């Protein structure tokens, strides 16, 4: 059967033709045993017509038999403006091909889902959903909320926001793509391999993903030794009207600090503003390092040397194929487990239906929809179009393959020039840990990484290339590239003084006695005889200074060693008492170094 694109002139004729064909095919189909076929309806709201058609073809290829009954699937999409319905019968599979893409408006998208539920005749069991066209960052929230209300499983093929892992709000959602926050685990691996210990995070302060990412990084600190020295939150909702002066004011502390590694987790458009400000401040050049999220890779001014992670299989067409397989295998699996129930189970008739628990729970959709969803999350196959397909308890994809990528100058340009567009090359791989697997698989080629400013440094490796013939001691090791350090210590001398007024205490000197002239600093006994004698009584005194005149704090930070000491200089003064007494005698001083007097 060849379907031609209808026009306004021949549309009525085509409608008649399709109705006739449908009646003919229906006659042939009813000549067999109708009771031997069981049908399930699956909806699809995707970002393009080619994805819709591919989904329909994917459903057509799936056949199964349970208890001598043939399982069939109906691929249902929202009715288009032309109301064109092409009904084909292939191996008792009924395919309704009404191509219409997912609407960007939440209310319209909800109406699309409700129209499919009504057309499903209470046998609508799941929906495969993507994002609206040209809006990859717009999640199908309304679809998930409505579907969760009625217990309909939703399989996302491009939704990567962390909010969908929350089973309280999205109880029936699962996806063939991992959430963006999974990048935190890969970032922690990179931090460990590069031996970085300090970093700064610039993130969106108004979405759930950033909070989840920071929480993952904090959890990673239990196994990887690093600290977050600074966290800068930005409002990415205003990415079209960003005040660059305000943004620069937020980012300027990075320039004055010592940390040289920056983690960026914002949207693509906001990342362009961050890179513009960073270029002005000179923090994207030599001795700096940037790790950016996958969303930022689409920025037009992506700086050379930036590192990122990218889902290796992100083609929506391939994920639609795997989603069709997940939903059909899940239904078939649960039908084999509960054949009598699934043969006659009714889901939802329409969106106005109020779901109440009936007396007979054996036929209750409210009772079995969670079990059907659980059966879908238990689906595992190794030969998927996007690789190993498996889900965790939250319905998130596990075992996904990531590419670790690096922004590098184009090989044809030689020296980087403004006119040469950078290229994104793969420098490593990361495979998520599967269920039951403790560790992920991770590999990276550090020598292939282009660092900002073409930074190059080498350090000895663990590989010995030359040994002493007598002692077998390694005297030469192979050199390997060294990433930029995560921090750069300042080299200037800082002196801080706190002034105070000196005073002395005194004790009467016994007649014929002596003052304590002990030189033991620990005793703090620096009694000094005063040369003045009281003219009236003839008595003399011993004086003891008890407060320093000046308090010095000196910190020295050379790049090769950190030295800080506290130097307390105390001038002990004995002031001549009495009439005409004057003069100052400097007695001694003491230095306090790392908790000890020297």
UniProtKB/TrEMBL annotation:
Residues 1-32 form the signal peptide. It is found in: Membrane. Keywords: Membrane, Signal, Transmembrane, Transmembrane helix. One of its GO terms (molecular function) is G protein-coupled receptor activity. The keyword Membrane applies. It comes from the Eukaryota. Residues 97-341 form the Receptor ligand binding region domain. Its main location: membrane. This is ANF_receptor domain-containing protein. It comes from Hymenolepis diminuta (Rat tapeworm).
């Amino acid at each position: 059967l060849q379907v031609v694109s209808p026009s306004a002139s021949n549309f009525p004729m085509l409608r008649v033709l399709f109705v006739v064909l449908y009646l003919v095919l229906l006659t042939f189909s009813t000549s067999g045993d109708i009771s031997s076929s069981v049908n399930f309806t699956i909806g699809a709201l995707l970002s393009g017509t080619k994805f819709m058609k591919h989904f329909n073809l994917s459903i057509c290829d799936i056949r199964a038999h349970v208890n001598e009954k043939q399982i069939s699937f109906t691929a249902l999409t929202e009715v288009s403006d032309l109301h064109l319905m092409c009904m084909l019968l292939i191996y008792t599979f009924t395919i309704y091909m009404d191509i219409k893409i997912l609407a960007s408006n939440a209310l319209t998208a909800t109406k699309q889902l409700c129209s499919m539920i009504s057309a499903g005749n209470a046998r609508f069991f799941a929906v495969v959903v993507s994002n609206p066209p040209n809006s990859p960052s717009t999640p199908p929230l309304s679809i998930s909320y409505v579907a969760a209300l009625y217990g309909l499983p939703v399989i996302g093929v491009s939704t990567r926001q962390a909010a969908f892992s929350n089973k309280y709000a999205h109880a029936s959602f699962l996806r063939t793509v991992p959430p963006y926050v999974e990048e935190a685990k890969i970032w922690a691996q990179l931090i460990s391999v590069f031996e970085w210990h300090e970093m700064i995070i610039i993130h969106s302060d108004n979405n759930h993903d950033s909070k989840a990412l920071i929480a993952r990084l904090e959890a990673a600190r239990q196994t990887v030794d690093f600290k977050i020295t600074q966290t800068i939150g930005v409002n990415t909702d205003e990415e079209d009207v960003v005040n660059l002066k305000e943004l620069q004011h937020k980012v300027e502390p990075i320039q004055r600090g010592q940390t040289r590694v920056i983690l960026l987790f914002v949207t693509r458009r906001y990342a362009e503003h961050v890179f513009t400000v960073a270029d002005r401040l000179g923090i994207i050049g030599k001795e700096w390092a940037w790790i950016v999220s996958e969303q930022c890779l689409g920025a037009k001014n992506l700086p050379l040397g930036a590192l990122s992670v990218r889902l290796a299989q992100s083609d929506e067409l391939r994920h639609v194929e795997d989603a069709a397989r997940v939903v059909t295998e899940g239904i078939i699996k649960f039908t084999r487990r509960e054949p009598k129930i699934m043969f006659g189970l009714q889901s939802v008739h329409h969106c106005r239906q109020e779901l109440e628990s009936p007396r007979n729970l054996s036929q209750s959709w409210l009772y079995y929809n969670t079990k059907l969803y659980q059966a879908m999350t238990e689906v595992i196959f190794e030969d998927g179009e996007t690789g190993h397909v498996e889900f965790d308890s939250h319905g998130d994809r596990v075992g996904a393959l990531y590419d670790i990528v690096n922004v590098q100058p184009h090989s044809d340009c030689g020296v980087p020039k403004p006119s040469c567009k950078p290229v994104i090359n793969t420098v490593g791989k990361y495979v998520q840990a599967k269920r039951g697997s403790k560790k992920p698989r991770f590999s990276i080629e550090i020598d292939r990484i282009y660092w900002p400013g073409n930074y190059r440094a080498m350090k000895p490796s663990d590989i010995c290339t030359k040994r002493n013939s007598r002692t077998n001691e390694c005297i030469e090791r192979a050199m390997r590239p060294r990433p930029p350090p995560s921090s750069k210590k300042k080299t200037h001398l800082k002196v801080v003084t706190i002034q105070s007024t000196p005073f002395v205490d005194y004790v009467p000197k016994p007649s014929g006695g002596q003052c304590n002239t002990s030189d033991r600093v620990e005793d703090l006994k620096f009694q000094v005889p005063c040369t003045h004698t009281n003219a009236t009584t003839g008595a003399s005194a011993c004086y003891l200074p008890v407060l320093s005149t000046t308090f010095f704090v000196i910190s020295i930070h050379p790049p090769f060693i950190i030295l800080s000491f506290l130097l307390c200089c105390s001038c002990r003064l004995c002031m001549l008492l009495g009439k005409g007494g004057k003069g100052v005698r400097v007695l001694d001083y003491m230095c306090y170094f790392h908790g000890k007097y020297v």
